[in-house]
Amino acid sequence: MELLTLPFMQRALAAAMIIGLAAPALGIYLVQRRLSLIGDGIGHVALTGVGLGLLTGNEPVFSAIVVATVGAVGVELIRERGRTSGDLALAMLFYGGIAGGVLLVGLSDGSGNSSLMQYLFGSPLTTSATDLMVIGGLGVTVLAAMLFFRPALFALCNDEEYARVSGLPVRTLNLLLAVTTAVTVTIAMRTVGLLLVSALMVVPVAAAQQLTRGFVSTMTVAMLIGVGAAGAGVLVSAEADTAPGATTVLLALAVFVATALAASIRHSLHRPQTPPTASEPPDVVLHA
Amino acid sequence: MSVVAVSHLAAGYDGREVLRDVSLSVTAGDVVAILGANGSGKSTLIRTILGLVPSRRGSIELFGTPQKRFRQWARIGYVPQRLGAGSGVPATVGEVVASGRLARRGVFRFPAAGDKAAVRDALTAVGLLDRIGDPVTTLSGGQQQRTLIARALAGKPDLLVLDEPNAGVDAASQEAFAAALTRFAGDGGTILLVLHELGPLRPLIGRAVVVHDGRIAYEGTPPEPAGHHAEPDHEHLHPHAEELKAGICEWAPTEGTKAY
Predict the structure, then answer these.
(1) What is the pTM of this model?
(2) What's the gap in Å between the CA of A162 and the closest CA on chain B?
């Protein structure tokens, strides 16, 4: 544990834990909306931003945030309008984003491959003090927005039409989710990498909902699992000399397997002895 | 006072015009049932009134304000046909019903004691207070429907708009919710509802509107239960007799419905 006295280790741990809290807090809304893979798509797009930053000599995090935000808002507008072509549009975005990123990173004069790997799979130990300030500031903002607007975001993701008839600012809330997705993906790329960031949004939620009965409890447990997996991922990977991003995601998946097993055991123990009482009448009315 | 005023409305989806020329007026305290066959446009009518389907021609006014400029959405409680399919993220009955307070409270304020009390009142009104902490997915279809009515009631609306609230609902739920609607109407509330069959709601309904082929085919007293059906003044219903039968013939007074 003397690792914890090392400043770079402390920064890596702090960054990972902020993301471990923020990613599931946002991810629960994406899962509720059946957009579990959107984070992945936006991650691909962010890579183009990283490439642009490296090529132009700007901080890659900022150019990635800008490009990812444009991509996320674009996806949201396509979803809002078309709905049918959304799937295909998303696929285009995936491939365009990653191809653009690989191309631009290659064109930049830095050591192309190693920096590419760093963004695709994360390298938390290289988190600088400036990085930590950016991650901390943006991560806490995302977290605060997800918690503060929880009733409205829950209503939106649970039943968009009802939210509309309630007079909620549906489009603004949708764009808020799109922008926070882009921001979360980008700040998480240092910790788990762009290809694994979506896992930190989705897997803790999937694990939590095996155990919980309500939305607030699911969100709370998912955040605990997220922060635990992210923190443990950094520590375990430093001790065992494994890839930090992959370690974090595998730890979260292990929690999922454990909670799913626990839920199925509990389910088989508490199997109801009597069939459900309220039987539904047939939808069709037969006339004598 | 005019609650809903629709004049020469046309609406539809992707090139297909579902409503051609519909005019409808609902005043405070009315209980109006919209009847019609599947595909007649009865659901489209209320969805257009609520702004979920864009109108093509004609005008819609809500509480005297043109729908495009209407902002007092807390005055309307909407009950959709069913709870969203659900994505696996659990939500309790209480959490779903609490969404009904947002129209009144707004996005920027935290729930207060009054919000919690309104949620409990609404769940009491539909007889589901004991299920407040249960995941909605563990409820029967009828109980989920009552949850949606409680969500609408929690906002303390002046107008309830319901889309086929009793489709595939068990008898206990039908009664619980006929009672909730009766109480709402008794307190001076206005109700506009799409129905496939009148069922136990029949005694509550003041006026029936039959939508056929995108137009209003009949407007007046609700069709009487079997027996009165053959009376001369019901002759004009016959082009639509098939669909109306569903609302008439299977209905017969029972112990439960006499109470209303």
Answers:
(1) 0.86
(2) 7
